[in-house]
Specification:
Elements: H1 8-11, H2 18-31, H3 44-70
Helix pairs in contact: 2-3
Length: 82
């Protein structure tokens, strides 16, 4: 009987941010005690759930990073401190 494993190649896109995405996914998995390579050893439904959660985490982090880059707030106090 052949074990069905998640397709890890499909997990990561072929675009410039894929390295960042993979790093964030690895960070999420490591916080849960897993490595990316561990996904192949887990039951398919567990691996798929971890992938979904990890991708959601990575997407949120990347949106947060982009927001910080897009919005540069210039904070100047309205009171004179001198």
């Amino acid at each position: 009987m052949t074990k069905i494993t998640p397709n890890l190649d499909r997990l990561f896109g072929k675009y410039p941010q894929s390295i960042l995405e993979r790093t964030l996914i690895a960070e999420y998995l490591l916080a849960g005690g897993y490595l990316i390579s561990d996904l192949e050893l887990l039951p398919l439904w567990v691996a798929n759930q971890l992938i979904i959660e990890a991708r959601r985490f990575a997407e949120q982090k990347m949106v947060e990073m982009n927001a910080k880059d897009d919005y540069h707030w210039d904070f100047r106090p309205s009171i004179n401190l001198n």
